[in-house]
Design brief:
Layout: E1 2-5, E2 8-16, E3 22-26, H1 37-43, E4 48-52, H2 69-82, E5 88-93, H3 95-106, E6 111-117, H4 125-141, H5 147-154, H6 159-162, H7 164-175, H8 179-190, E7 205-210, H9 218-227, E8 232-236, H10 243-246, H11 248-267
Parallel strand pairs: 3-4, 3-5, 5-6, 6-7, 7-8
Antiparallel strand pairs: 1-2, 2-4
Length: 268
């Protein structure tokens, strides 16, 4: 289904139990909503799930120019408004996790819990330069020019031998991303600066990381956990940056565990 929000027509999928508590899922850069197939299926038995394609990803129209994390956060709030979602649990990975940081800080009244997965909190100069270099590469050589390097950076050791189907799934999603969508989101990542404010978060939050995540290493997630009072920390073995696809059972158990605990506490 297409949902108009914040001036953009977003490709969305709504599934699960009508009238149940909502869960919003936000994917990583250069993927799309099908990266959540396993989690959406696991959640759908008890919850109402919204997953969506970000600007310039999957079936959502591309928008030219640099994006900001404030804009990407506003996209989520706009979709919630369009679908009449007052409050929701949230799970986001990579840039989706960064959006979760912004939601937890600036729209806490709309978020019941947040799982922030495989996401950093603050851009250092080398980090920002690496993203600007990738933007330049995509502008010059197209999205296909970064497929192999991105999959290598995302994967845990030996993944290509263990699960060639997972490698193919990643490659397909990257190739399907528009250059404008990739570059716009990459520009937002390059200006990431939530670290100084993370200690203000007072929501139920957990930080999930793949033990072999090279883009947002476990020590980064552990630091975020230490910065947010009462938060949870989950490290998943034999998983890289897209930890939900490499280890769906462990990942899903962590996400659903937090949501279930918050809902039980609310009913209590």
């Amino acid at each position: 289904m297409q949902v108009k929000a914040n001036g953009v027509s977003f490709n969305c999928r709504v599934e699960g139990v009508e009238g149940a508590p909502w869960v919003v899922l936000s994917h990583s850069l250069a993927t799309e909503l099908t990266m959540w197939d396993e989690l959406a299926a696991a959640l759908g038995a008890r919850y109402r799930v919204l997953r969506y394609d970000m600007r310039g990803h999957g079936g959502t129209e591309p928008v030219a120019g640099d994006y900001t994390l404030d804009t990407l956060v506003s996209d989520v709030i706009g979709l919630m408004g369009a679908l009449k979602i007052d409050k929701t649990h949230y799970c986001g990975l990579s840039i989706g996790g960064m959006i979760g940081e912004g939601l937890a800080l600036d729209h806490a009244q709309r978020i019941k819990s947040a799982s922030i997965c495989d996401a950093p909190h603050t851009a250092t100069p080398p980090f920002s330069k690496a993203w600007h270099d990738r933007i330049a590469q995509v502008r010059q050589g197209g999205i296909g020019s970064i497929v192999d390097s991105t999959v290598t950076r995302w994967s845990s050791a030996g993944l290509a031998e263990r699960r060639p189907d997972v490698i193919a799934r990643m490659q397909k999603m990257i190739r399907g991303t528009s250059p404008d969508g990739y570059c716009g989101c990459a520009a937002a990542i390059a200006r990431l600066n939530y670290g100084p404010r993370l200690g203000q978060i007072r929501l139920p939050v957990q930080f999930i990381t793949g033990a072999e995540d090279h883009g947002a290493p476990p020590e980064n997630a552990r630091q975020m956990h230490q910065m947010v009072p009462g938060s949870r920390f989950v490290e998943i073995e034999q998983a890289g940056h897209i930890s939900n696809i490499e280890q769906p059972e462990k990942f899903n158990a962590a996400v659903i565990g937090l949501i279930d605990d918050v809902e039980k506490a609310g009913r209590g």
